[in-house]
TrEMBL record:
Keywords: Coiled coil. Residues 121-147, 260-292 are annotated as: Disordered. This is B30.2/SPRY domain-containing protein. Residues 275-292 have a biased composition (Basic and acidic residues). Residues 330-425 form a coiled coil.
Amino acid sequence: MSIDQSKLSDPSIRLNVPAGDLTNATVTQGSAARIRLLQAENEQLRREKNEIEIKYREQLETLNAQLRDIQEQLNESEEKVKKVEESTILEKKENIKQKEEILIEKENEKRKVEQELRFEKEEKKDVLKKAEESEKKKKSEIEKRRQLETEKERIKWELEQLKSENERLKRERDVEINLACENETKLNASLKENERLKKELETKTDQITNEYQRRIDEKEQQRQEIEILYKEEQKKNEIEINHEEQTRKIIKEQAEQIKSTQSKIRTLSEEYENEKERSEKESIKAKEEERRRKEAEILKGKIEQENFALKLANERIQYEVCRINEKYGKEKIESEMKEIENEYKSKEQENERLKLENEMLKQEKERINQQLLKEKEEKERYKLRIEETSGKVRKYEQIEKLQKLKKQKENIKKMKENNEKYRLQLVRDGDFPIAIINSDPSDFDFADVDGKQKKIIKKKDYTTGTVSLSQELENGTWELEVQFSNQGQTGGIGIVKDTYVIPAGCQPDSNPHSQNMATYHGPGWGNGTVNCKGGYKSGNVSFNDNQIIKAEYDSEKGTLIFFIDGVQQPVYIIGIKEKVRFIV
């Protein structure tokens, strides 16, 4: 309780005492004493008031302190509540996240299991399909192999039959030849005996003329009988020769059949290899497609997993947005989002402005760089002009020197070419002796025809053999013309390395001889094929008896070209770098 000091009476003012009135002095003194009492009371009241104010202030401070404590407790409780709410929200989020992860894992496991099952089914189908195809291929291959084996056995049996028949005919012919020889010797002996008897009869007397005539008649009769037998033997021999020719023809036909069957076998094996290669390629392609399909399915599964995870994340974000809207109000969030969008737009505009400024600066920088480059290029051009003029002067001097050297070289080259032409002309015009290197004299014989042409005679029929000319081919172009006459067996011509020694019975298309030879064969050896170092190439015409086959070897170019009756054949040999000899 406070007292208004302005309402109290001032002690210096006297109340109800008129100025200059001395009669009321006692009254004034009494009022002054009252005033003093009042002042004392007033002072007492002021002290009480101050005490009360101090007391109330202390109470107010204690209340404020209590209020602060209560407020702090409330704040602490609110913070605890917030923490509890946040922890519950976090727990809920973690639970939701764990549930989502569990769902995603289960979904992924389900997809993987389905994918593995699908892959297993497809692999089983592919394995069954491949097994069926391999079984079919095996059956077809077994069938083809059986057919080829039966055909091979049949041809082998026929060949053996023909060989045995040929051997029998040879034996019979040998027996008949022996008989004919014996008859001929008997005939010669009888003729000699007749001559001797004639001489004896001339010296004898006429008394034994009748007996001599009788003996002559007997001998003449014997001679006629022997001649008849000899003619019969000749007829038999002719029949045997005809029969032998027929057997040769049959053997030749059988050999052609064997070659055709061998070619069929080769074609079938090639077809089988091609089919095998094609099936392997198809299987590789199918595996590649299967791998790509699996990769695509795996990628599809991953994309579906990502979409599922994004869907869950989107749902979670929507849930969070709804919760924030409920907590803070939709309008406030929208306004904040608009402010954020406006800030983002302003930042984008600022970025665009900065980009434009950067572009302008870049353009300015490029323009300055271009100007500098132009100045630099002009300086370089000026330097180049100076260097070009000095280089042209030096070049002109060098060209003059080079032209002089070139003329000198051309003159030297022309002189060398003329010398070489003259030397080659001497080589071509030279008369070189023809001789052979005969590794088997029992099989080959060599005879002169007209001084220039030579004849090589093969003594053994139906056997292989190769002879070479002794002349080493170098420095120029060399030609060899050959004419075969061996009842269609023909043969071949070509070249052999000068260092290679040809053995007896050499077959030119077999190893190791084929690695050192290059040959062109007739019908008995491949029907026009060209063999070179183990490989063969068809495309040339096959030749027969009495045709002129020419081999032309150019040692400068390293080429071997073949001709038949003057017509060049398309397949020839190049890249010959060593010394060689002609072979037949």
